Amino acid sequence: MKNFVTTDQDGEKLKELFVDGLKDIYWAEKHLTKALPKLAKAATSEDLKSAFEAHLGETETHVTKVEQVFEMLGEKAKAKVCPAMEGLLKEGDEIVEMTEKGTIVRDCGLIMAAQKVEHYEIASYGTLRTLARILGHYDAAEVLQTILDEEGAADKKLTDLAEAHINEEAAQE
């Protein structure tokens, strides 16, 4: 990882940190476009399948929006491996492997894994939005806020599904 500690006064090191964070979330979003169809296929509940499929469409637009942010900054869109997301996606795969197909218990586990991903994205986009504002990239901050709002809505949808019926049904299995 780069060393971002410096005393420069023009914010160049902060911009480098910001761009590095964009590269990280860009990788994460691109890999989520591959993971979400697997989660939808593994889900038992039609509501959960639909939620994953709907979020796939949003995630594909998030990839495009992050590319727009790179463009706004005059930077080339480039992904950097995101170890945190890589681990979260692996955890989702493990839940599929360790739970029985066709069970609501699996759905409960899928929601747990997906919400961990959403919370990582919410933290990342919130920080990136704030850095964009600090650096004076208000147009980029607006795009990042839009993505942040969509990630928050996806997290709420998962919570609503869990609380509406999935967790209770899982307890009955």
TrEMBL record:
Coiled coil regions, renumbered to chain: none
Database matches in Gene3D superfamilies: 1.20.1260.10
Pfam families attached to this UniProt entry: DUF892
Signal peptide: none
CDD domains for the chain: YciF
Xref: InterPro entries: DUF892_YciF-like (IPR010287), Ferritin-like (IPR012347), Ferritin-like_SF (IPR009078), YciF (IPR047114)
Superkingdom of this protein's organism: Bacteria
Protein name: Ferritin-like domain-containing protein
Organism, scientific name: Emticicia agri
